[in-house]
Amino acid sequence: MKYRLILLDRDGTLNYEAQNHHRDLSVLRPYPFSGPALRGLTDAGHRLALVTNQSGIARGYWSIDDVDRLHKRFFKEWGVEPKVYLCPHGPGGGCGCRKPLPGLVQRALADHQCTPAAALMVGDSLADAGAAQGAGVDFALVLTGRGRITRDLLSHPPAMLLDTVADLTGKFSA
After folding, report:
1. How far is the first Cα of the chain from the last one, in angstroms, to the nearest whole number?
2. How many domains does one find in the chain?
3. d(CA 124, CA 139)
4. Cα–Cα distance measured from residue 140 to residue 13, given in angstroms and rounded to the nearest whole number
5. Mind telling me the catalytic residues?
6. In the Cβ-directed half-sphere of 44, how many Cα atoms lie within 13 Å?
7. Calpha distance 53→12 (Å, rounded)
8. What are the φ/ψ torsions at residue 154 (nearest 5 degrees)?
9. What does each of the 174 residues of the chain score in pLDDT, given as a tens digit?
10. What's the rounded Cα separation, in Å, for the pair 146 and 152?
């Protein structure tokens, strides 16, 4: 198994994303394929981590507790509970964890005692691609969310191009 750890962006990768920031997290809905895909990856022996920027916390749209409740709702629906790596800072917040910086990915690698070569970052944005590149992990671009726009903006091709995160289960099934 090449990838022991699958790092997943949330918005646009695992759930529908509003055009602007979603002010009411209760309206966010996961894609219908997310739960089966994540369970399939877990069943195949992969560890999962959620790596997400949540600047709405810094902007005062919601609290960390609100985001935790959203994740618990998603995890219950999905039937899996990946470890969450979250950046609560806004753009220009001066942190090292906000994607495209690699801080969240590096923290996940360290927590899971995983080398960059054994990890895959899955996302739909240039920020996701940048975080993967900065941490030295392969990047899989999903065409959900902002993926189709991102595909045309990437400076180099991703390790994988996926219609949805569900395509991973076919690539990594046991």
Report:
1. 9
2. 1
3. 10
4. 11
5. 9, 11
6. 21
7. 12
8. -65, 140
9. 689 999 999 999 999 987 666 677 888 899 999 999 999 999 999 999 999 999 999 999 999 999 999 999 999 999 999 999 999 999 888 899 999 999 999 999 999 999 999 999 999 999 999 999 999 999 999 999 999 999 999 999 999 999 999 999 877 654
10. 11
The domain of 24 spans 5-172
Return the CATH number at 111: 3.40.50.1000
Residue linked to tokens 């609290």 = 63
Report the 10 Å Cβ neighbour count for 112: 17
Amino acid at 141: L
How many angstroms separate the CA atoms of 38 and 167, rounded? 11
DSSP 8-class letter at 30: B
Tokens representing 30 are: 């996961």
Q: With beta carbons less than 8 A apart as the criterion, state whether 172 and 3 touch.
A: yes
Rounded-to-10 torsion of CA 24, 26, 30, 31? -70
| Residue 99 amino acid letter | K
Question: Which residue type, as a one-letter code, is found at position 171?
Answer: K
Distance CA 77, CA 75 (A): 5
